[in-house]
Structures are given as structure tokens and as C-alpha cells.
């Protein structure tokens, strides 16, 4: 009697240390990105220039990793529209998470070891209405997405600002960035 056995490809999970590192990295990147929503950390021009290329590399890596994780997870569950949308947007989501991750160190440094600093910026727009999370914004030139505005600026000050106006943002920070507390126009 000839008995044919079906060989199912056995899926081996990643080793536990790798799963822990991946999960820790994901949650660290997620924490950083969510923190950016609630705080007004403005990186200095020096920091933005310094981390430009590394942030792109880290963003591409985390975008690829996120895509791979979502595809691996989708292989174990039935196909749905929600799963397809997750697969399509996971690289972008992972890229943004990873790109923002490079700012976590300077943010923590400014938070714990910072002192009052003044960092110059240039206004790109001061006439926007803002959104639910950021009322009365002043948008700044040369800063990456999510780091490019100061919220809650008084109407009187916003009326005096225009594109190209030089300002100084004052708050707790280091030479790498500042948590915006107040701002003033430079002469």
C-alpha cells in the first residue's frame, strides 16, 4: 500500500529575542510619533541637516519591516479589504514612524537635560486656521512634517508675522531643539 502524506510547510515563528526587539522598536517608534502630536518640539536647523540621511534610511527600513510584518500576518488570516488597505499603507506608516524615531534622542535630551534656549526660525505661514489639535498655528520653514509649526500663537502676534519673518522660539531645550514655550520677532 502506497500512502502519500501531504507535507504542510511548517511556519516557524521568529526567535523570541528578535520578536522582542521588533516589538520594542515598533512601540518606541509609535510612542515617538504619538508624542509629536501632543508636544511642540522644534528641531534646530543643525539637527535637521544632521539627521536627514539617517532618518531616510531608518524610515525605509521600518517601512519595509512594517510591510513584511503586515504581509506575514495577513498570510495567517483570510483576505479582507481592511487587510489589503493595511498592506498598502503599512510601508508609509512604517516610514513615518521610523523617520520620526531619529528625533526621540534629541527630544529626551531636551526634556531631561535641557535649559532655556532661544533658537531662530523663519516663518512660512501665519494665516492658517489650524486644526483640532493645533489652533492658531505658525508654520516654520525647513522643518520636517510634524515638527513644522508652533500652536496657540496669539492673534496679535500672528498678524505681525508673514512668510519670511525671522522669529526666535524660546523654551526648554538644547542646541538640537526646543519645546516651544513662547516666541518673539527678531529685528
Looking at how many chains there are and whether they match, the oligomeric state comes to single chain
**Structural class of the secondary structure composition?**
alpha+beta
Supply the CATH architecture of the largest domain: Beta Barrel
Order of helices and strands: HEHHHEEEEEHEE
Number of domains: 2
Mean pLDDT: 80
In the CATH hierarchy, the third-tier topology of the largest domain is known as: OB fold (Dihydrolipoamide Acetyltransferase, E2P)
Distance between the termini: 95 Å
Biggest sheet layout: 6 strands, antiparallel
CATH class of the largest domain: Mainly Beta
Strand order of the largest sheet: 1-8-7-2-5-6
Provide the helix percentage: 40-55%
Uncertain runs are none
SS field, number of helical segments: 5
How much β-strand is present in the residues? 15-25%
> Given the C-alpha coordinates, what overall shape results?
elongated
What's the count of strands? 8
Task: Give a quick summary of the entry.
The strands form 2 sheets. A 6-stranded antiparallel β-sheet has the order 1-8-7-2-5-6. A two-stranded antiparallel ribbon has the order 3-4. The chain has 5 helices and 8 strands, in the order H-E-H-H-H-E-E-E-E-E-H-E-E. The chain has 187 residues and is α+β, with helices and mostly antiparallel strands.
Task: Describe the 3D structure.
With 187 residues, the protein is of the alpha+beta class. The protein has two domains: 76 residues, no CATH class; 78 residues, OB fold (Dihydrolipoamide Acetyltransferase, E2P), CATH 2.40.50. Helices cover 49% and strands 22% of the residues. The chain has five helices and eight strands; from the N terminus they run αβαααβββββαββ. The strands form two sheets. The protein has a six-stranded antiparallel beta sheet with strand order 1-8-7-2-5-6. A two-stranded antiparallel ribbon has the order 3-4. α1 packs across α3 and α2 packs antiparallel against α3. The termini are far apart. The model has no long low-confidence stretch (mean pLDDT 80).
Amino acid at each position: 500500500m502506497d500512502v502519500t502524506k501531504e507535507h504542510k510547510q511548517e511556519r516557524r515563528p521568529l526567535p523570541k529575542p528578535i520578536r522582542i526587539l521588533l516589538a520594542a522598536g515598533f512601540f518606541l517608534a509609535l510612542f515617538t510619533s504619538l508624542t509629536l502630536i501632543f508636544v511642540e518640539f522644534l528641531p534646530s536647523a543643525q539637527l535637521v541637516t544632521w539627521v536627514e540621511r539617517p532618518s531616510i534610511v531608518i524610515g525605509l527600513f521600518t517601512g519595509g519591516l512594517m510591510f513584511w510584518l503586515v504581509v506575514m500576518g495577513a498570510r495567517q488570516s483570510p483576505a479582507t479589504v481592511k487587510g489589503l488597505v493595511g498592506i498598502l499603507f503599512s510601508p508609509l506608516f512604517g516610514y513615518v514612524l521610523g523617520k520620526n524615531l531619529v528625533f526621540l534622542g534629541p527630544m529626551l535630551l531636551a526634556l531631561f537635560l535641557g535649559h532655556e534656549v532661544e533658537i531662530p526660525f523663519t516663518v512660512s505661514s501665519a494665516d492658517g486656521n489650524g486644526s483640532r489639535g493645533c489652533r492658531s498655528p505658525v508654520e516654520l520653514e525647513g522643518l520636517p512634517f510634524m515638527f513644522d509649526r508652533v500652536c496657540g500663537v496669539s492673534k496679535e502676534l500672528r498678524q505681525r508675522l508673514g512668510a519670511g519673518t525671522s522669529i526666535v522660539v524660546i523654551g526648554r531645550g538644547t542646541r538640537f531643539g526646543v519645546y516651544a514655550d513662547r516666541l518673539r520677532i527678531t529685528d
